[in-house]
Protein backbone atom coordinates (compact mmCIF):
# COMPACT_ATOMS: atom_id res chain seq x y z
CA UNK A 1 0.00 0.00 0.00
CA UNK A 2 1.42 3.39 -0.95
CA UNK A 3 2.15 5.74 1.86
CA UNK A 4 0.28 8.96 2.28
CA UNK A 5 3.04 11.03 0.84
CA UNK A 6 2.89 9.11 -2.43
CA UNK A 7 -0.90 9.57 -2.67
CA UNK A 8 -0.63 13.29 -2.24
CA UNK A 9 2.08 13.39 -4.86
CA UNK A 10 -0.05 11.36 -7.28
CA UNK A 11 -2.74 14.02 -7.35
CA UNK A 12 -0.29 16.87 -7.12
CA UNK A 13 -1.76 17.93 -3.81
CA UNK A 14 -0.85 17.67 -0.18
CA UNK A 15 -0.97 14.22 1.36
CA UNK A 16 -4.10 14.89 3.39
CA UNK A 17 -6.14 16.08 0.41
CA UNK A 18 -4.90 13.20 -1.75
CA UNK A 19 -6.06 10.72 0.88
CA UNK A 20 -9.51 12.31 0.99
CA UNK A 21 -9.84 12.07 -2.80
CA UNK A 22 -8.80 8.43 -2.67
CA UNK A 23 -11.42 7.68 -0.01
CA UNK A 24 -14.14 9.43 -2.07
CA UNK A 25 -13.25 7.36 -5.13
CA UNK A 26 -13.32 4.21 -3.00
CA UNK A 27 -16.82 5.10 -1.71
CA UNK A 28 -18.06 5.72 -5.27
CA UNK A 29 -16.93 2.29 -6.36
CA UNK A 30 -18.54 0.51 -3.42
CA UNK A 31 -21.83 2.44 -3.57
CA UNK A 32 -22.61 1.54 -7.22
CA UNK A 33 -23.37 -2.12 -6.58
CA UNK A 34 -26.98 -3.18 -7.26
CA UNK A 35 -30.24 -1.28 -7.55
CA UNK A 36 -31.92 0.92 -5.01
CA UNK A 37 -35.34 0.10 -3.66
CA UNK A 38 -36.89 3.07 -5.44
CA UNK A 39 -35.48 1.92 -8.80
CA UNK A 40 -36.98 -1.53 -8.31
CA UNK A 41 -40.35 -0.03 -7.31
CA UNK A 42 -40.38 2.10 -10.47
CA UNK A 43 -39.70 -0.96 -12.64
CA UNK A 44 -42.50 -2.91 -10.93
CA UNK A 45 -44.90 0.02 -11.43
CA UNK A 46 -44.05 0.24 -15.14
CA UNK A 47 -44.60 -3.50 -15.59
CA UNK A 48 -47.95 -3.20 -13.79
CA UNK A 49 -49.08 -0.38 -16.07
CA UNK A 50 -48.06 -2.32 -19.19
CA UNK A 51 -49.92 -5.40 -17.95
CA UNK A 52 -53.05 -3.35 -17.22
CA UNK A 53 -53.07 -2.17 -20.84
CA UNK A 54 -51.97 -5.41 -22.50
CA UNK A 55 -54.28 -7.93 -20.80
CA UNK A 56 -57.59 -6.42 -22.02
CA UNK A 57 -56.20 -6.08 -25.55
CA UNK A 58 -55.02 -9.69 -25.40
CA UNK A 59 -58.48 -10.86 -24.26
CA UNK A 60 -60.20 -8.90 -27.04
CA UNK A 61 -57.92 -10.56 -29.57
CA UNK A 62 -58.79 -14.03 -28.30
CA UNK A 63 -62.54 -13.26 -28.16
CA UNK A 64 -62.34 -12.27 -31.80
CA UNK A 65 -60.42 -15.43 -32.68
CA UNK A 66 -62.95 -17.62 -30.87
CA UNK A 67 -65.85 -15.92 -32.59
CA UNK A 68 -64.14 -16.55 -35.92
CA UNK A 69 -63.72 -20.21 -34.98
CA UNK A 70 -67.45 -20.58 -34.36
CA UNK A 71 -68.24 -18.86 -37.67
CA UNK A 72 -65.85 -21.17 -39.50
CA UNK A 73 -67.63 -24.19 -38.08
CA UNK A 74 -70.90 -22.84 -39.44
CA UNK A 75 -69.29 -22.01 -42.80
CA UNK A 76 -67.92 -25.54 -43.10
CA UNK A 77 -71.48 -26.89 -43.13
CA UNK A 78 -72.86 -24.19 -45.44
CA UNK A 79 -71.53 -25.73 -48.68
CA UNK A 80 -72.87 -29.17 -47.81
CA UNK A 81 -76.31 -27.83 -46.92
CA UNK A 82 -76.49 -25.65 -50.05
CA UNK A 83 -75.55 -28.60 -52.25
CA UNK A 84 -78.14 -30.79 -50.54
CA UNK A 85 -80.91 -28.23 -50.92
CA UNK A 86 -80.13 -27.72 -54.59
CA UNK A 87 -79.87 -31.46 -55.15
CA UNK A 88 -83.19 -32.12 -53.43
CA UNK A 89 -84.77 -29.24 -55.30
CA UNK A 90 -86.30 -28.11 -52.06
CA UNK A 91 -85.91 -24.43 -52.79
CA UNK A 92 -89.55 -23.47 -52.48
CA UNK A 93 -90.79 -26.18 -50.17
CA UNK A 94 -90.50 -26.70 -46.44
CA UNK A 95 -89.25 -30.27 -46.89
CA UNK A 96 -85.67 -30.23 -45.66
CA UNK A 97 -85.75 -33.65 -44.02
CA UNK A 98 -82.95 -34.92 -46.26
CA UNK A 99 -80.79 -31.85 -45.59
CA UNK A 100 -80.43 -32.08 -41.82
CA UNK A 101 -77.41 -33.17 -39.82
CA UNK A 102 -76.56 -36.79 -40.42
CA UNK A 103 -78.18 -36.99 -43.88
CA UNK A 104 -76.99 -36.53 -47.47
CA UNK A 105 -73.31 -36.20 -46.61
CA UNK A 106 -73.91 -33.55 -43.95
CA UNK A 107 -72.08 -34.42 -40.73
CA UNK A 108 -74.25 -35.20 -37.72
CA UNK A 109 -72.35 -32.51 -35.81
CA UNK A 110 -69.00 -30.84 -35.93
CA UNK A 111 -67.82 -30.77 -32.36
CA UNK A 112 -64.76 -29.45 -30.68
CA UNK A 113 -63.69 -30.03 -27.13
CA UNK A 114 -60.17 -28.93 -26.33
CA UNK A 115 -58.18 -31.50 -24.39
CA UNK A 116 -56.97 -31.14 -20.87
CA UNK A 117 -58.91 -29.41 -18.14
CA UNK A 118 -61.23 -27.29 -20.32
CA UNK A 119 -64.96 -28.01 -20.22
CA UNK A 120 -65.84 -26.05 -23.35
CA UNK A 121 -67.76 -27.79 -26.09
CA UNK A 122 -68.78 -26.40 -29.45
CA UNK A 123 -71.16 -28.04 -31.86
CA UNK A 124 -72.29 -27.11 -35.35
CA UNK A 125 -75.53 -28.76 -36.45
CA UNK A 126 -78.10 -28.32 -39.20
CA UNK A 127 -81.64 -28.02 -37.87
CA UNK A 128 -85.04 -27.81 -39.50
CA UNK A 129 -85.42 -25.30 -42.34
CA UNK A 130 -81.71 -25.88 -43.15
CA UNK A 131 -80.62 -23.44 -40.45
CA UNK A 132 -77.03 -24.01 -39.34
CA UNK A 133 -76.41 -23.46 -35.63
CA UNK A 134 -73.08 -23.36 -33.85
CA UNK A 135 -73.47 -23.36 -30.10
CA UNK A 136 -70.66 -23.01 -27.60
CA UNK A 137 -70.84 -23.92 -23.93
CA UNK A 138 -68.06 -21.71 -22.63
CA UNK A 139 -68.44 -22.28 -18.89
CA UNK A 140 -69.25 -26.00 -18.82
CA UNK A 141 -72.73 -25.68 -17.29
CA UNK A 142 -74.45 -27.45 -20.19
CA UNK A 143 -76.11 -24.34 -21.63
CA UNK A 144 -75.17 -22.44 -24.75
CA UNK A 145 -73.31 -19.22 -24.03
CA UNK A 146 -72.70 -18.27 -27.66
CA UNK A 147 -74.58 -18.99 -30.85
CA UNK A 148 -73.85 -18.37 -34.51
CA UNK A 149 -76.80 -19.05 -36.78
CA UNK A 150 -76.73 -19.17 -40.57
CA UNK A 151 -80.18 -18.96 -42.12
CA UNK A 152 -80.73 -19.57 -45.84
CA UNK A 153 -82.90 -17.29 -47.95
CA UNK A 154 -84.04 -18.58 -51.30
CA UNK A 155 -83.80 -16.14 -54.19
CA UNK A 156 -85.36 -16.27 -57.64
CA UNK A 157 -83.39 -18.39 -60.05
CA UNK A 158 -82.40 -20.96 -57.45
CA UNK A 159 -79.84 -18.88 -55.60
CA UNK A 160 -79.41 -19.15 -51.86
CA UNK A 161 -78.11 -16.32 -49.70
CA UNK A 162 -77.16 -16.79 -46.07
CA UNK A 163 -77.81 -14.42 -43.17
CA UNK A 164 -75.57 -14.66 -40.12
CA UNK A 165 -76.73 -13.91 -36.59
CA UNK A 166 -74.43 -13.94 -33.56
CA UNK A 167 -75.43 -13.89 -29.91
CA UNK A 168 -73.32 -13.97 -26.76
CA UNK A 169 -69.55 -14.12 -26.45
CA UNK A 170 -67.29 -17.07 -27.04
CA UNK A 171 -64.67 -17.70 -24.37
CA UNK A 172 -63.09 -20.64 -26.17
CA UNK A 173 -63.82 -22.85 -29.14
CA UNK A 174 -60.94 -25.00 -30.27
CA UNK A 175 -60.37 -26.92 -33.50
CA UNK A 176 -62.75 -28.92 -35.63
Automatic annotation (TrEMBL):
TM segment ranges: 35-58
Entries under Pfam families matching the protein: N_methyl
InterPro entries listed in its UniProt record: N_methyl_site, Pilin-like
Keywords: Membrane, Methylation, Transmembrane, Transmembrane helix
Top-level lineage group: Bacteria
Classification via PANTHER family: GENERAL SECRETION PATHWAY PROTEIN G, PREPILIN PEPTIDASE-DEPENDENT PROTEIN D
Membership in a protein family: Belongs to the N-Me-Phe pilin family.
Entries under NCBIfam families matching the protein: IV_pilin_GFxxxE
UniProt protein name: Pilus biogenesis protein tapA
Amino acid sequence: MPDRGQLGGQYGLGSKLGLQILEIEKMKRSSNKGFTLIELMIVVAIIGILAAVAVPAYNDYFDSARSTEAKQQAESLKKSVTACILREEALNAANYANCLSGNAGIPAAITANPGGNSTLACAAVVTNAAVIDVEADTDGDGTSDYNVRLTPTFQAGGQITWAIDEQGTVDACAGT
